[in-house]
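Dear colleague,

As promised, here are the two records you asked about, laid out in our usual form so they can be pasted straight into your sheet.

NAME FIELD: protein one
SEQUENCE, THEN STRUCTURE:
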Amino acid sequence: MDFEETSAEFLELASEVRLKILFDMLEKPSRLTTLSKKFDASPQEIHRNLERMLNSNLIIKQGNNFYSLTTYGKAVCTQIHSFSFLSQNKDYFKTHNFETLPSKFLRRIGDLNNSQEITGVSKVLETWKKIYKTADNHIFNVLYETPLELMDLVVKRVKQGIKYHHIISENASIPKGRRNLLEKSGFNDILNSEKIQRRMLKHVNISIVLNEHSAGIMFPDSSGNPDLRSMFYSTNKYFREWCLDYFKYCWNVSDPFKEFKLKE
């Protein structure tokens, strides 16, 4: 890898103004005067930054005095999302990790950028419930724990026609009384429905909850298990697609569900 050339590119991006200009042009071409007013900067400052970006092949100048991104500039913008997500949450990742995350998902970690961190067990569960309640077609889970208070809602949604696809860890944290509750709630009666499909993984490190509109992800803390005290949540298209692709990956490498492996 040519670190000298790469470091030079980082230097060109090491400016809040230039980053703002890049992402503004990602939406549409713009003029110098428009950028000056939008970012409350002098025309001279904007011109100086535009010249640097022209020389770095990040932008081109069109004949009508509009500036727009080059193919290279557009590609650079897609990578900046990853740095943005990681830098904004670097304190969080002091106590959480994604060491088990396959590299193909780590390379796309920027897709999680447009999200909010939900903190506190009660708020996480409320957000979890919201994902279940707002589903119009499906609910997909990858879980280490199965909160009992959500089972009645799951049964209700499946009876309403929602597909429920569930992946659980073989060493999942199963609360006492789970089997009795499943029977009382009517879950066992709908197990043979095509709407319910269940699979198992040896261990779940990262938990995912999603429907066709929104998604939530819980990374592992120092215990190596997903932290239910914190969830990244978003309705953003790319965030949800990342979570959906991760669910599909887990589904493809999972094993058939075996009830006897779960211990209360």
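NAME FIELD: protein two
SEQUENCE, THEN STRUCTURE:
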Amino acid sequence: MSPEKKVSVVAPSSNEPELLLQRPPMLIIIIVYKLVKWILFLSLAVVLYCKSDNDLPVEFQNLMATLRIHPGNKFFTHLAEQVGQLTESNVLWAAAGTLIYSTFSLVEGIGMIFRAGWAGWLAIGESAFFIPIEFYDVSSMKRFSWWVFIVLIMNMVFVWYLFQNRERLFHHHHHPTQPTPVP
């Protein structure tokens, strides 16, 4: 990972150069990932909310017919049973939970744009929280899922990168003490 580059730029209102910090590419990737995740989960929350009052078992059966999935397939039969047990209240709770979770990604992304230290720790904590869950999913699946594996690797890299570079990446509001003059 390349270190931050300081670029000297002359401010338009003065003749004194000011230093601008160029964002490291890996931090930009993490910020984009968090903001895309926010958009996806926000969209899912809106869809869940809009579909909460629909007849979900009938819609699922229509979807299976549209996709031409054989109704005797055990996986989809089990999934249809699970969808049949959903109530409007459960779907609304899922929408609310998804909306709250999406807000974490938005806050992390915006906080990292402004290089706030708390945002780095929030991103480290949130990503580290899911690593054991994703590892369990990858190791216990009957069928291997590349998507879960990719998300696991991305979260591991994000946690490692943010933790290793937290001092350099994020502002820390320490107030330096004034040196005492020597007589």
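A couple of things worth noting about protein two: The longest strand covers residues 6-10. The chain is about 65% helix and 5% strand.

Best,
R.
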